[in-house]
Amino acid sequence: MERRIEPAVAGRGAQGRLVPTRFGLATREVDGDWHDHMEALDGPPVKLRTTITEERPKTILSFNRSPDVFFDRSVNAYRGCEHGCVYCFARPTHAFHDLSPGLDFETRLFAKPNAASLLRATLAKPRYKPRPIAMGTNTDPYQPIERRYRITRQCLEVCLEARHPVTITTKSDRVVDDLDLLGEMARLRLVAVAISVTSLDPRLSAKLEPRAAAPAKRLAALGRLADAGVPTHCSVAPVIPAITDEFMEDIVQRAAAMRVASVGWIPLRLPHEVAPLFREWLSVHFPERGDKVMSIVQSIRGGRDNDPDFFTRLKPTGVWADLFRARFRLACKRAGIGKARFELDCTQFRPPGTGGQLRLL
Q1: 102/340 Cα distance (integer angstroms)
Q2: Bridge partners of residue 73, in order along the sequence
Q3: What percentage of the chain reaches a pLDDT higher than 90?
Q4: 195: β partners
Q5: pTM for the full model?
Q6: Collapsing DSSP states into helix, strand and coil, what is residue 294?
Q7: Cis peptide before 132, with omega less than 30 degrees from 0?
Q8: For the chain, what are the domain ranges?
Q9: Is domain 54-335 given the CATH code 3.40.50 in the classification?
Q10: How far is residue 291's CA from residue 150's CA, in Å, rounded to a whole number?
Q11: 100-129, pLDDT tens digit by residue?
């Protein structure tokens, strides 16, 4: 893998670009002497701006057979994510398109305006069998551009009409913009929402996940959802050793105070290009403890930066992993909260109308 390091960019998670070569695609590297010469003439690069490309795929529902995840189908309204979480396990998906999992992932976004119509057509197929659809499995369904496009809301409207169950995972308090839909879906046992909270320090959050909602806003959103009767889960994720693990107990306490129904934790994962991006981030923001962080990460991942194997990728091993588990269990016991299982109802499903025609029954 080739790498070109750019100057640190304020307001972005990745500190440079990784030029993807895993798939044998052409790199976008430019001649270094020419690059230096242009900077000498024009000054440093201007602040990166987010660009959005609209695409119109032929399908929107993705199926998977992973044995260690709770869902078998998902909808992703966007590709790339402006939240810019440096640890995001979805970053390598940009490499499939010969784009950088680094800065491109958070600045070159793709929106799917026809997602709701595609979902409607899929749910209306005679042989379709309903099971909960997961939203937010790859990129955040409530990232900033959702306020403009409202694609996630449109998909929820289709699901409510069809009485189709949905799970949502997000880092944004923007989810409460759809509380009218979510409240109605919750009454019908059609929705559960998870919000991940990584730390309680807004300054640290601004470095780790620069364009995600501040931790206090996420906790407040959990409270509003819970008050509206929406099944809610607070995910302490990811837990980054020696960076965010100090907040684990307090996050559990805050979630319990918000009457959240369930909490859980997920250890840091560093698949493919995420590992060098994260190492680079450590060298910029925490150079004095980077080696310690990676040493602990490797200790819970069998000596590697990442464990890609089913089941063990979500269940780290070793002394440090056991310590985190013990701390989390004790925090849950003290807060009087645990991990709940939300049973969503698939029996109410009714195929939605298509082509502007009303359903007869």
Answers
A1: 35
A2: 63
A3: 77
A4: 170, 234
A5: 0.87
A6: helix
A7: no
A8: 54-335
A9: no
A10: 42
A11: 999 999 999 999 999 999 999 999 999 999
